Amino acid sequence: MIVDVNFVGLIIASIMASAVPLILASCGELITERSGVLNLGVEGMMIIGAISGFALMTVTGSLIIAVFGAMLAGVLISTIFAFLTQTLITNHVATGLALTIFGIGISAMIGKNFVGIPGKEFPVLFEGLKDTIPLLSPILFGHSIVFYFAFALPFITSYFLKKTKIGLIVRAVGDSPESASNQGINVRFVRYACILYGGAMCGLAGAYLSMIYTPQWIENMTGGRGWIALALVVFSTWNPIKILIGAMIFGGLTIIQFHMQAIGVRIPVQFLTALPYIVTIIVLVVISRDSRKIRLSTPSSLGKSFHKDN
Amino acid sequence: MNTNLKISNVTKIYPGCVANDDVSLEFNSGKIYALLGENGAGKSTLVKILSGVVIPDEGKIYLNKNILELNSPSDAKKNDIGMVFQHFNLFETLSVFENLIIDSDEQRENLKEKIDTIMKKYNFSVDLDVPVLNLSAGQKQKVEIIRCLIRSPKVLIMDEPTSVLTEQETSELFLSLKKFSEEGILIIYITHKLKEVMQLCDEVAVMRRGKLVSVSQINNENIESLANKMVGQDLKTIKKKKENTSSEQLIKITNLNFTSEDPFETNLVDINFSLNRGECLGIAGISGNGQSELFQVLSGEIISNKNSIEFNKNFIGNLNPQERREYLMAFSPEDRLEQAAIPQMAIFENVALNNFKSSNFFNNGLINESKIKEHSKKIISEFNVNTNNIDLKSQFLSGGNLQKLIIGRELITSPDLLICFNPTWGLDVGAINYIHETLIKINEQNKSIILISTDTDELLKLSDKISVIHRGKLSKIMNAEDVTSEKLGILMGGGN
Questions:
Q1: Which of A198, B9, B393, B439 could crosslink A28 through cysteines, CB 3.0-4.6 Å?
Q2: What SS3 class is residue A168?
Q3: Which domain holds residue A190?
Q4: Whole-model pTM over 0.80
């Protein structure tokens, strides 16, 4: 059997494409969690991003407005979360769950009018280079700008946290909000900013799904990717590079199990569908076993409300 | 240049408590000032006001005759007031250097140079690249001090700095503080330890219940006079009557061993001792030499060989703490809020926790709240716990009151043996005195005590027999009269 190298390249590219929303949402949530805030509303923010992006694209016809509109929608819904948890000091877990339920509900409501409408084609970059190098060309060229941004994001996030002063402040707030406050850092402001940033990235992840990956609106189209993104953050032990690895494994197994089902491998379908979830978590647990590193990268104040008393 | 810091008529009222009541004080550079008071006297509130963490209801602060607006910690920093808190304000998972650069406006290289200069000058050695959680308490404190020194402060405030330090680290700290003072930094030293005030400071201000009681020169004071001012009454000096104790053996430990899988724990090697009724056995040692492991083995948190512990002619080495309590043992662990009590639970609930079986607190699995509350009230009044609200969460009790509650909870069942571990750690003089009196009283009632403590003065005061634990091994048991603190010091260091 002769394997077409370009076919292999295409499979890898499709794996990468399916990893994009996970990387975007996880990297956003990672910043939120590094500041000590646990936002379980990722799924809700993603789906709001998905419907906002698709609706704006259909209504305005402008892709730029649609993408930025989806990010803004993510910011707006995360503002609710930020206001509740940071200003009114509500419980992070309960508020985040409520946000997801709210997001799924409201997106279904808005989305009623958009079911069945075909999406628009999203422009891709470097299309002319697609046939230049065997194997690598389909991987490297001919993708949307969001795709390239997503694969740069883990490295940008890592650099931001390790090398910049603002990144240091975010980590400090997540480590000990009390100490940070006593050092004159405005904990509430930092946490607001991190939550809003997380919202923007989830909104973008949603827009990618409804505008680029499968350009149409289907109710509940995020399909639990928000929860996977959350799991990736935790099991990667808050390390953006490991998020990239986890997202690739998850995307890869999702695609491969589709092909296995298509070929007719005699393994129960349920097991194949569950495979990406199980393997991703096992791999991440195994590569993140160093307890010292876990202690160093886990935000100690994660999920705890900070109330500055006077 | 001289620095003059003036606190003028400062008042701060919290709901139900006046933390600072019209306090006025004046400090001048070149001297080390002590701010002395028991826990809850208002010292910490006052220094929090000076560092901008707490805003006073009334009163003003002047630095060199200029009025200071201290609305946030950064205001204090801007005005050259440096502060080292009792609980470190460090980010454990960040490296030392990251901790230092976070609130500095300087460039990396400049800051590094500055830190190097400071470390050389004061002979500090801290590795800048390791995460803070790997440092010892003394090193963490040095990081805090360096953080203040980077800003070349005019005023340096130290809040109970020695509570987490070893003696060696304490004397190093005192040397540094004296050096800072000579260089013109005004030092305010907050403490409730009288010895330290006498050793280090030039002037002393005493606070009690939010009020300033006295300001005086150290030369005119001594430990007793300061203690009396601090507590507000003459302290009785407690002395244990040495009388012939009974010769009836209560507990006998034979060839007790414990090997831990955790590399940070100490293994216990061949522990042997016995104790008669009415006696107090003191176990001395530098912390981390196996005391907490020994406490856990004796209390049943760690289960050992059945025959290794004989108590009242029963072999109980394999029983858990609750079962041992039924044989009339009682325990007061070292960490009051982590091990002895549950901070988020009410006083009466904590009282119920050590008494699951041998009481009428529970009927058919239901909690008999009125019985427990009645019992709790009895403990509170008999053991002088300063609250009348048994629904209060135990985390809101002061250390002294919580310790009294814990000891009371254990003793009210009149056990034959009380095992306690650092019972007076971090408490003020009044509470320490009370705990000591209580421990002496139970010895007089022909009950026994095993006192594991890192405070040698306490051990010499209370024990009939003393042994020293070093690297998991117990020295031979000595009669307390034959022991001096020098001798204990040698044994604690591993000498003979």
A1: A198
A2: helix
A3: 7-297
A4: no
